[in-house]
Amino acid sequence: MRRTVSFQAAERAPQEGRQPEPLRTEFGFELPRGYVDESGTVHRTGVMRLATARDELVPLRDDRVRENSAYLSVVLISRVVTRIGTVDDIHPGVIEDLFASDLAFLQDFYRRINAEGHTRAAVTCPSCQEEFAVDLAGGRLGES
User: Fold this and answer.
1) Which of 92, 81, 98 has its CA nearest to residue 47?
2) Do residues 83 and 67 make contact, with C-beta atoms less than 8 angstroms apart?
3) Structure pTM?
4) What does each C-alpha distance from 96 to 31, 45, 91, 144 come to in angstroms?
5) What is the pLDDT, as a whole number, of residue 134?
6) Could you report the per-residue pLDDT of 39-69, keeping only the tens digit for each?
7) What are the backbone angles phi and psi of residue 143, rounded to the nearest 5°?
């Protein structure tokens, strides 16, 4: 006996009895070192939103990216970071002024939220070798 299930019924089946989680489009983070603005203030916390197809396509038309493909990540990150500390005018110049470790953090954070859909990373304690997950979004120890 062959059983057929409509697409809609198949789509609903795993969700029965549960409310779907709302789509999360913004993710908070904490930079390892922090962005230092022109007055010397250090800004460490920020927000990155999910990238759109346009965010990934528009930088390819940018002359700076055409001249130096390594600049692609600077333009792309500047499009999806909406705030760093109290700075909410994020442009490539701001991203250029980040410490290299902060740029690397944001590149990894971008990959995690856009490709993997979360901000967790598996780590191993260097002392006891215990494996556990940490949230790269920058929560403090003891916070939930």
Assistant:
1) 81
2) no
3) 0.69
4) 14, 17, 9, 32
5) 64
6) 999 999 999 999 999 999 999 999 999 999 9
7) -90, 155
C-alpha–C-alpha distance, residues 29 and 21, integer Å: 21
DSSP-assigned beta bridge partners for residue 48: 27, 81
Q: What is the DSSP string of 73-119?
A: HHHHHHHHEEEETTB----HHHHHTS-HHHHHHHHHHHHIIIIISS-
Helix or strand or coil: residue 12? Answer: helix
Q: Could you give the count of Cα atoms lying within 13 Å of 137 in the half-sphere of its Cβ?
A: 15
Neighbours of 109 (CB within 10 A): 23
| Structure token digits, residue 26 | 């913004």
